[in-house]
Structures are given as C-alpha cells and as structure tokens.
Design a protein that fits this description.
The chain has about 425 residues and is of the alpha/beta class. It is built from 15 helices and eleven strands.
Length: about 425
C-alpha cells in the first residue's frame, strides 16, 4: 500500500495536559483543591495535586525534537511542541503526520490516573477525576469528535464509584478507560480476587475496553539497583509481559466472558512465545494446578478472542501476524512520546507492511480500533478525506521541527537515576 493511502487511527497517544484544564470543570466548593502547575526552582513547570508531584517527564513531550534534544527533566510548556497540549495544534500535527485519529491517555496523572487516586480525601479525588474526564471528553475530544477516541480515568480506590464512572462515561460516548497493568502494584486488590467485579460488570455491560498501559502500576522492570539506564529502557515492555501473564489465567473470565482488555505500548513481537509457554504450562502442569479454562478456552484462544494489542513499528511482530487474531491487533503512534513514529508513520508503515495484504492492513491501521472503541469518524468525515495523503494536503505546510529546550546532558542521566533508584 502506498503511504498516502493509509487511514491511521492510533490506540495510544498522550496529552501533556494544559495548565487551565480544570478551570471550567471543578465546582467552586472544591476549586482550592484543584491540581495546579507550579514553577519549580530549577525553572521547570510541574503539575502538583496537593503535595503529590505529578508524573511529568521530559521524554513524554519530545515530538519534533531530534534524539540529542530528548530530556528526562520536566519541561516548560514553551519548550514543548504546542501540539502536546493545545488541541487545535494537536489536530494540525496529526494531519501533518497523516494520522486521522487517536486515543489519548493521560500524562501528568500517571497513565492510569494514579496521582488523582492518591489524594488523602476520597471525595476530593472523585471530584477531580470526574473533572478530568469531563475536560477530556467534552473539551479535548469534543472539539474534534472525528479525530479522537475518548479514554477516561477511574476512581480505582472505590470500585463501586469506578463502575458508576464507567457508565457515566459510556453515556457520553466514551468506551475506553485506563486501568492499571497491575493494580496490586498500587496497593490495590489484584485481578485474581473478585474485588473488581462491579467495575468489570460495568465495562462488560457498556462494551468498554479496559486499557492497561505500560507504566500504569507506577512500577518498572528492574534488574540490579545500579543497572545503567539502557537496561530499564530496553526492558520497558516487560511490564506488559506480566500483565498478559495475569490476564491469561485470570478467573474473572468465567464471570465476564464479554469483557475486553487491551495491552498498550508493549509491542507484540514477544507475545507468541508467551502464548506457547502458557499452552505448555497447561499441558504439563494442570494435573496439579487444577486450572479450569473459562468457557473451555485455552490460554492462546482466550488471548485471541478477548485481549487487544498494538505496536508502533515492531517488525518482529509483523513477521508473526499469523500467530495472532488480526482483528485484535491495532496500530499506535504514541505522540508526543519518545517512541513515537510521528511525523513519518505512513512511510514507516508502508515499508513495514509492504508484504501484508490490504485487508489486513486496513484492519490493523484503523478498522479494528473503530470497532473495538465504537468510533465512527466516517459519519462526520468522508473516508476519502481521511487518508494520510488527503490529510497532509488539507493542512498544508507545517513546521515539523520543535524549536525549544536544550541538548541532552548529564542532568538528564542524573534525573533518570533519581527516578529509578529510589
């Protein structure tokens, strides 16, 4: 397929949320508790929720910068590309990169909204989570509904409230929520208990996908405490391995056979091996494990039926697509993070999928995302205007270089070490 002919819908992008995002959505009685952006002594700008520091990292806002300008330290907004935090500029960047639409995860809150779940007052936490979701669905996604798949965050500290929020979001047209890759890592019940059943029931009832983003447990794969930075960076997908391991053997599938989970930003090339290993485990060890497959599905069958996955530019995974149910494989851009393929995704995909048939390409690049997240951009925008070539022609020339920031130096390595060696 020619690069200009792709229709690209990403299931993983991010927002570097604007500083005024809560202004119109927090009730007056709670305004004093609203999260805020603070000017820090080192000159950076940082989100805080009460005394809790947000998760901002410089690597989360590097779109348009060469690798030698990637910083780990938090940035100032003026050092980011405006498309990181301004929805109109985001859409402009998407068009310049040939991308029709994207599902946007949170950033400063943590990828599963951890920060807003950690405040000491649960009533305030719930107010702020709902305010975040209203801003995200009504303002960010609502500004260009044909360009964004909404994704909500949940009050994970109260499963009944989380279930209610899923239903509230679904009524707004939001059928994706971010859920921790490992809630036990956040001090919450594991998915192997029945504690999450009200939430899972709400998601099943509303056809809402639970998205498990790498890093959403506030944990990272680690080896030695003094391992150099490349170790953790190259093992970043390992947390998705753990998530898949939990999901393949979870007992809730017996109770919620229509539930769907998604593995986000973990790539896919490793998955066939772990499916084989799960099958081997079942065959060799079930005499003593006494595992009862839900609805009779073996681990690999369960994966292919009920778990979504995605990749940016994983050539190993593409070589093994016959090991997958391609109806559950999606593409991601990851804008504006450091792994993103923006603004050259169409060209990279044209090379990566050169020997893949057009029907499979269409499923991976947009049709699967549209179906799973109940997203229909073609009802608002003719399909012919949704291709990479049409979008780029429509937006015209765009400066693809981000001007601002500083070259990477020892400060960034020191920041990384502080973050990973606590």
């Amino acid at each position: 397929m020619n690069a200009d002919d792709f229709i690209l819908v990403s299931v993983d992008d991010h927002i570097c949320e604007p500083a005024d995002m809560f202004a119109a959505h927090v009730p007056d009685a709670y305004r004093q508790y609203a999260p805020r952006v603070v000017e820090e002594a080192n000159g950076s700008q940082q989100w805080y929720y009460g005394d809790i520091r947000g998760r901002n990292l410089g690597l989360n806002a590097v779109a348009g910068k060469p690798p030698e300008m990637y910083n780990v330290d938090p940035l100032r907004y003026e050092h980011m590309r405006p498309g990181c935090y301004d929805v109109r500029e985001r859409v402009r960047d998407m068009s310049a990169g040939g991308q029709l639409a994207g599902l946007n995860f949170p950033n400063w809150t943590g990828f599963s909204g951890q920060v807003l779940n950690q405040g000491p007052d649960r009533t305030v936490n719930l107010v702020m989570i709902k305010a975040y979701n209203d801003w995200h669905v009504d303002e960010w996604c609502g500004a260009y509904p044909e360009r964004f798949i909404p994704c909500g965050i949940l009050p994970l500290f109260d499963v009944e409230e989380a279930a209610r929020e899923v239903r509230r979001l679904a009524a707004k047209g939001c059928h994706a929520v971010t859920f921790s890759e490992n809630p036990a890592g956040l001090g919450m019940p594991s998915i192997h208990t029945d504690a999450w059943d009200p939430l899972f029931a709400a998601c099943a009832d509303t056809e809402t996908v639970l998205c498990c983003h790498v890093g959403s447990s506030s944990q990272r794969a680690s080896t030695a405490p003094d391992a150099p930075a490349p170790v953790a960076m190259s093992l970043s997908s390992v947390m998705s391995v753990y998530t898949l391991g939990d999901l393949l053997w979870a007992l809730f599938w017996h109770r919620f056979p229509s539930l769907r989970f998604a593995l986000t930003e973990g790539d896919i090339g490793w998955i066939p091996y772990f499916l084989w290993r799960a099958e081997h485990t079942l065959d060799r060890h079930n005499g003593w494990m006494k595992y009862e497959p839900p609805q009779g599905l073996r681990p690999s069958e369960l994966f292919r039926e009920r778990i979504l996955c995605c990749f940016i530019a994983d050539r190993i995974g593409v070589k093994m697509l016959d090991e997958f149910n391609v109806d559950n494989v999606c593409w991601e851009s990851d804008y504006p993070h450091s792994d993103s393929s923006w603004p050259n995704a169409p060209e990279r995909l044209a090379e990566l999928l050169a020997t893949t048939d057009d029907v499979t390409v269409a499923r991976i690049t947009h049709l699967n995302a549209m179906r799973h997240f109940r997203f229909d951009p073609f009802s608002r925008r003719a399909a012919g205007r949704c291709t990479a070539g049409a979008l780029r022609a429509e937006v015209g020339p765009v400066d693809l270089v981000t001007h601002g920031g500083r070259p990477a130096d020892d400060r960034d390595l020191e920041s990384w070490q502080r973050l990973t060696r606590r």
